[in-house]
């Protein structure tokens, strides 16, 4: 029974780390990356649809994205969604596709993005700690119910803490890497 709790905890922490990776991909550095626009939601016939489900996103140049929708009638909606997003860019439509040119980042914008990276990393750390708290509470209940011994409880606590420490180190490494990418680009 305790092993199920630990397995579930490991899955939840991995999901948290994967979510953080995806979120960090969406933060703009100086280079174009399809993840910058893929998750932007477009009002497509009354349904909020991510851009990645509406067409292809390519990177023809280091600072340019080209979105080619499968349905050309969606061009204006895609352009409008990108304009109103937090990217802070103005897309251009050429009748076939939407072009997004990414300007150089200013020092102030780089610092803002760095703070955003730290905010997302802290949210991930908090989520991981919450998972740890839930698992440790479950172990306490098991000990009180006589399902596990006090020694086993202490051993499980150490295993949980070791896993959480490793997960938080991964979060810190991801955040540092992204911050370095933003500030040095």
From TrEMBL:
Location(s) in or outside the cell: Cytoplasm
**Any one cellular-component term (Gene Ontology):** cytoplasm
GO biological process annotations for this chain's record?
translational termination
The UniProt entry, under InterPro entries, shows:
Ribosome_recyc_fac, Ribosome_recyc_fac_dom, RRF_sf
Keywords, A to Z, come to: Cytoplasm, Protein biosynthesis
Q: What does this protein do?
A: Responsible for the release of ribosomes from messenger RNA at the termination of protein biosynthesis. May increase the efficiency of translation by recycling ribosomes from one round of translation to another.
Q: Which PANTHER family match?
A: MITOCHONDRIAL RIBOSOME RECYCLING FACTOR PSEUDO 1, RIBOSOME RECYCLING FACTOR
Transmembrane stretches, start-end:
none
Q: Name one GO molecular function term.
A: ribosomal large subunit binding
Q: Which Gene3D superfamilies match?
A: 3.30.1360.40, Ribosome-recycling factor (1.10.132.20)
As for family, the record states:
Belongs to the RRF family.
Q: What name does this protein carry?
A: Ribosome-recycling factor
Q: For the Ribosome recycling factor domain, which residue ranges apply?
A: 21-183
């Amino acid at each position: 029974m305790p092993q199920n709790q630990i397995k579930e905890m490991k899955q939840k922490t991995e999901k948290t780390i994967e979510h953080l990776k995806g979120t960090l991909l969406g933060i703009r550095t100086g280079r174009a990356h399809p993840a910058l626009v893929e998750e932007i939601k477009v009002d497509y016939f009354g349904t909020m649809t991510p851009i990645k489900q509406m067409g292809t996103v390519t990177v023809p140049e280091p600072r340019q994205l080209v979105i080619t929708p499968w349905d050309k009638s969606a061009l204006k909606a895609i352009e409008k969604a990108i304009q109103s997003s937090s990217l802070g860019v103005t897309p251009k439509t050429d009748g076939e596709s939407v072009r997004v040119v990414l300007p150089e980042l200013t020092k102030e914008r780089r610092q803002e993005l760095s703070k955003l990276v730290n905010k997302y990393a802290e949210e991930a750390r908090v989520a991981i700690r919450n998972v740890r708290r839930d698992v440790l509470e479950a172990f306490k209940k098991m000990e009180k119910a006589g399902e596990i011994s006090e020694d086993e409880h202490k051993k499980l606590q150490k295993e949980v803490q070791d896993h959480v420490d490793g997960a938080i180190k991964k979060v810190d490494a991801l955040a540092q890497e992204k911050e370095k990418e933003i500030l040095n680009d």
